[in-house]
Design goal:
CATH topology of the largest domain: GMP Synthetase, Chain A, domain 3
Number of strands: 6
Radius of gyration: 17 Å
Largest sheet: 4 strands, antiparallel
CATH class of the largest domain: Alpha Beta
CATH architecture of the largest domain: 2-Layer Sandwich
Order of helices and strands: EEEEHEEHH
Distance between the termini: 14 Å
Number of domains: 2
CATH superfamily of the largest domain: K homology (KH) domain
Shape: globular
């Protein structure tokens, strides 16, 4: 039996939907097609996976950090600010089967007083952090 999971998000601002398709490949591995790219999602060997790809929660943190970094770059460009050596780290603190807290840490050589005014505008336009801040209803249907 082949099992396919489709995730779809409707975005009014961008218009339409966006999907990623995960195909179970056995064990704890899925092959995922997202945005025209193929990736492997897996669990570490010590929990029964093959360690051939990041865990789903790793991808979630990667989405959070990269989306906020892009949003910060956008906010900076709108204000004519150059962001040298920008790095955003997303850290999730587990609480059972979910993250209880998510922390974004911004690192750059831009002085803090110049960075601070960019943080909120970036947060407002970051699709991923907005999704967490205003959690959508999750529905599951059988195709």
């Amino acid at each position: 039996m082949t099992m396919t999971t489709t995730t779809s998000t409707t975005t009014t601002e961008r218009g339409g939907t966006n999907s990623a398709v995960a195909t179970w490949a056995g064990g704890w591995r899925c092959d995922v097609e997202a945005g025209g790219f193929s990736l492997v999602v897996d669990e570490p060997v010590d929990v029964g996976g093959t360690g051939l790809g990041p865990m789903p929660t790793d991808l979630l943190l990667a989405s959070m950090s990269s989306c906020y970094a892009l949003a910060l770059a956008w906010a900076a460009s709108k204000r004519g600010v150059v962001l040298p050596d920008l790095q955003v780290t997303a850290t999730g603190t587990y609480n059972g089967q979910k993250f209880a807290a998510l922390l974004l840490t911004v690192t750059t050589s831009l002085p803090a007083q110049e960075l601070a005014p960019l943080l909120e505008p970036a947060k407002r336009v970051c699709y991923v952090s907005n999704t967490f801040a205003h959690a959508p209803v999750i529905e599951v249907e059988v195709a």
